[in-house]
Amino acid sequence: MNHDNSFPSNTSQSSKSTGQQSARQVAIKVITNILLQQGSLSTQLARHQLDVASEHAPMLKELCFGVCRQYPRLNSIALHLLAHPFEEKDTDLYAVLLLGLYQLTYMNTPDHAAVNETVEACRILNKDWATKLMNAVLRRYQREADDIVEILETQPSVEFNMPKWLVKRFNKHWPEHLEEIIEASNTHPPMCIRVNESLVSRETYKEQLLDLGINTEKGEFSDSALYLKNAVRVGELPGFDDGYVSVQDEAAQLSAHILSPKAGEKVLDACAAPGGKTGHLLEKANSAGLSSMELTAVELESWRMEKIESNLERLGYSAQLICADASDLDAWWDGEHFDKILLDVPCTATGVIRRNPDIKINRKPADIDDLVIIQREILNKVWTTLKSGGFMLYATCSLMPEENEQQIQHFLANQEDAKEVALNSLAADLAVEWGIPVSHGRQLFPQANGHDGFYYCLLQKA
Ligand SMILES: C[S@@+](CC[C@H](N)C(=O)[O-])C[C@H]1O[C@@H](n2cnc3c(N)ncnc32)[C@H](O)[C@@H]1O
To answer: Is the pTM of this model over 0.85?
Structure first.
């Protein structure tokens, strides 16, 4: 199937929020658009979540996340079952088939219901001609599932439930960590929260949760992290609306601990949305009894900018928010240098596949080269806004050395006034025991019951 730009007429890009459609109907739209590269899973879900009644929202999420998570396997099974792949104009039917296979393989839906719903979905799409085909394909899968899976199991994409090219890359760069990466990337991430230490200690908050029957474990690496044994809705977390706590992965929490903002400092968060780290930087400054840290947050996407605003509003902090391309200094920089900069650049997100499983569908090897160029441009330009003696923390949620240690290697080779410093240079009490040291910085791998995959390198300007 050639996933280019054309948009099928039956999947309108801006849909009305009727609240009238079934979770399956909306899931077909979301999956179709992802297959056609019309946006990420998170943007598609945000755009379409109001198309279903609120009680069906969890089912919509389960179907969409589930199909993306299992895509390499489901795709191989579907292609094995079909005599001819669907044409691009029938990508919606392919989405219907993937959803049917997902229900049959991974959900408790009775088989006959899954088959009937799949066939009915063809009619709703006004593609009655496909009902017989869909029925035959799913019935065959019901009969031969074990044999088919056995035949396909030798394919790396099926064995690892990951695109073949990604398995190859992981194996090339991290052969000793391959199993760990694959396992963690294929499991649901644990729910990790960040306690706002300017308002309550982690210990006290942990006890408050226990009183409510919510069991937690302290994060090993971030002093503010608590892992919930069982995920809960954020509304059940005491003080959530008043900023006592935020949902944030433990590895992501390390950014603010490493940069450790101090009184009177001028800090830049250069690629800021949705603002998880922006909020943490402000919390850190407050927990040191400071209020005079001046924070500027720059973000390219205006719709993502709104997320920073609502995040900060909940936490009760303010910052200078600028919607701009961080590498276009004329557009946003007033010439005042920063003491510290967090540069959490756009990346392949290969360390957080479990949170963005649509990466399994849409990420391509060429994205790495494209992103390396964008990162390089942002890094070089933003570096000029750092004052002499100032610190920049370069971060990605990628596992690709090209975006991480090699990017920094290239930067240091070309930037005479830059040097790498230890990750605990600004926080002597920070035990840097996470991930592994690499030629520059540290690489963290996703952990099945722990933190996400991340990369950090701290730089100082001469
Ligand atoms: C990895 S995310 C940042 C996550 C964020 N630091 C947090 O913790 O919530 C990268 C962000 O950079 C933004 N971005 C991409 N290119 C950019 C650019 N040229 N200038 C500024 N922001 C950019 C993306 O829209 C995205 O929101």
So the answer is: yes
